[in-house]
Design a protein that fits this description.
Helix content is about 30%, strand content about 25%. By secondary structure, it is α/β, with parallel strands linked by helices.
Length: about 180
């Protein structure tokens, strides 16, 4: 049995494109990343922590952990703390290219393995009015980088290079291959 160590409705939806044979068990683990860790390595570290925490509860199952970060100039943009924080993130991303990294970890039989997928995203130039209008939808508040490419945030995106589903939070094709489900 597969266990998804995430409460994200987007990850649930994306994993269901690969398999219907999974349960959800949120890890609730304390996330820790050593100082000085390169931004592109952070998602794998966090995904591994989540997968291993749930694997301790379900040692006979295959546990999938995942974490997504938005990175601009080596700075990680996580989920916004409040509307002001969301505004500052979106303002920083305005008119620029940034990277979305998603780490996927699979824990089984006491060991864990992981990979990181990278996608480049370019935003249109955004006015303060556009940013405020988007924030007023409430959508950015639980999303890395304060936007959801699959929702109303799609109008902010000029283009992407790489895996669209990676930006949503789970690189579907690479995850299916990693799990040997093809």
């Amino acid at each position: 049995m597969y266990i998804l160590a995430s409460g994200s409705p987007r990850r649930k939806e994306l994993l269901s494109l690969i398999t219907d044979e999974f349960e959800i068990l949120v890890s609730g683990c304390d996330e820790f990343v050593p100082d000085g860790t390169p931004a592109e390595k952070v998602p794998a570290i966090l995904a591994e922590q989540k997968a291993l925490a749930v694997s301790k509860l379900r040692p006979n199952d295959t546990v999938i952990g995942s974490d997504t970060v938005v990175v601009l100039n080596n700075e990680i943009f996580g989920k916004p703390k409040d509307k002001s924080h969301a505004h500052s993130m979106l303002k920083a991303l305005s008119g620029k290219k940034h990277f979305v990294y998603t780490g996927v970890a699979v824990a089984e039989n006491g060991s864990v393995r992981s990979f990181v997928q990278k996608t480049e995203v370019e935003f249109y130039e955004l006015s303060d009015e556009t940013i405020e209008k988007y924030i007023s939808t409430g959508e950015p508040m639980d999303k890395a980088g304060a936007y959801g490419i699959q929702g109303k945030g799609s109008v902010l995106v000029k283009g992407i290079v790489g895996d669209y589903f990676n930006v949503m939070g789970l690189p579907v094709a690479e995850t299916a291959r990693f799990l040997n489900l093809l």
